[in-house]
Each structure stands twice: as C-alpha cells, then as structure tokens.
Amino acid sequence: MPGTSSSTLNVFANDHENRMTVPYSGLHEHDTKLLIRNNWFPIRTYAKRRRFTKIYNVCINDSNITEAIRGENVLNMFIEQNTKFKIIASFRSILLNNIDEILRYYHSSSNKDNCLAPWVIESRVDLETFIDAICNKDFIEQAIRSRPDTSWTMHMLTNLTFYLYPILNHPIAYCPSLPIHIRNNPAITIAELDCNGKPFNDKFCFFRALVLMEGIKKCTRRKL
C-alpha cells in the first residue's frame, strides 16, 4: 500500500560501495571506469525523500537500459507515495569530445534535457504508461540533446533520475490488478469493486478485509 516504509520494501536501497555496478569494456575503457568511480555518488542507485520533492536514481548500462527502467524497483516508486504526484525523468551520460578525446560526465537535472514533459501520476497504471513512453524514446538522441556543442558525442548512458513532486491533499488511488491465479482461487475473497462496479480508491483495504474476516467468523459460528 502507499506509505509502506522503504526499509520493508527496500525500494531504491542506496548503493554506496559497489562502484563497479556499471560494467564497461570498449573505447577508452580505463578512463571510462575512472570517471564512473569519481562520479559514483550521482550515478549509483539511490533515493532522496523530502516532503516536497523525492528523487529516485537508477544506475544503468548499455546492456540493461530497458530492463532497469521497467524493473520492479522503478514501479515500486508508486507504492511509497501517499498522494498524486508530478514526475519528471532525466537521462544522464558520459560524453566524449571528438577533438581532444576527453570524457565528461553530465549530471541529472530536473529543469532541462528531460525525457518527456511532466506527467501527473494518479495510479500505478499511469506510472506504467509513463515508463512505456520513456522506453519508446530514442535513448541516444536524448543523451545527445544534453551535449554542450557538436564536438561532443554520446559515449555511454549511466543513470536515469526521476523527480517526483507530491500534490498535497490529493490522495492517490491504489487498486492493483490481481494475478489470475488469485482471482480464480475460490478460497480468496476479492474486494476490488464497490457496489457500482468501480474500483475502490479510499485506501481502506485493511478495514475492508477486517470486516470480511469478522463476517466469515459469524457465519462459521452459526454453522457450528
């Protein structure tokens, strides 16, 4: 449920030590690995949670870009939120200067070189749609847009940063789609829809389950 502590879910656990999480072999290998080490703090997977802004950073490499973006770690951002929120995403990369062959890391920013225009997220489906839109973007083109001039080319993508801005006093809807094996299990009572056939969005799932459980107890007592 939204508001579940990150210590329980281990969402975006900060990666302080593993400086070789981004494997690389290829052009300028030594300098690339050195640059990653020197800039590991902004490249690593981490989260910063404040009242008005939350930052979630995903460490990526050329072989796992889509996998990392679609991973449960990213989708679980939604679970931590209690209100609707605006989200912005920004790719960061290492660029190579074609003239003197110098490598340079470009930091994430919430106000420039964003993948998409800001989205308002009201449900997990909204977040999944947002992630799909990012995956359909040209990652290389996105990185090239951040270069200072045409003498620089994209060397490698390093991380994707999500900036979340909570919309206070607007509780988020939370009605996940249940797996088929749970839906079809006769031993499980499913309470997804109200009497009008609309998904529950009041976040009273615990109390609803409690009422159902008490009802089952009463029926059992009557049978006995």
Describe this structure in words.
The protein is an alpha+beta fold and 224 residues long. It has 2 domains: 166 residues, no CATH class; 44 residues. The chain is built from 9 helices and 6 strands, in the order H-H-H-E-E-H-H-E-E-E-H-H-E-H-H. Strands 1, 2, 3, 4, 5 and 6 form a 6-stranded antiparallel beta sheet that branches. Strand 3 and strand 4 form a beta hairpin. The two termini are 36 Å apart. The N terminus and C terminus are likely disordered.
Tell me briefly what this model is.
This protein has helices spanning 6-9, 29-38, 40-43, 65-69, 72-75, 124-135, 139-144, 180-183, 205-223; strands spanning 46-49, 54-59, 83-97, 103-106, 119-121, 152-171.
Give the topology, please.
Layout: H1 6-9, H2 29-38, H3 40-43, E1 46-49, E2 54-59, H4 65-69, H5 72-75, E3 83-97, E4 103-106, E5 119-121, H6 124-135, H7 139-144, E6 152-171, H8 180-183, H9 205-223
Antiparallel strand pairs: 1-2, 2-6, 3-4, 3-5, 3-6
Oligomer category: single chain
Number of strands: 6
Q: Count the DSSP helices.
A: 9
Beta percentage is 15-25%
Distance between the termini: 36 Å
Order of helices and strands: HHHEEHHEEEHHEHH
Overall SS class: alpha+beta
Number of domains: 2
Poorly predicted runs are: 1-9, 217-224
Overall mean pLDDT stands at: 76
Radius of gyration: 22 Å
Q: Give helix % range.
A: 25-40%
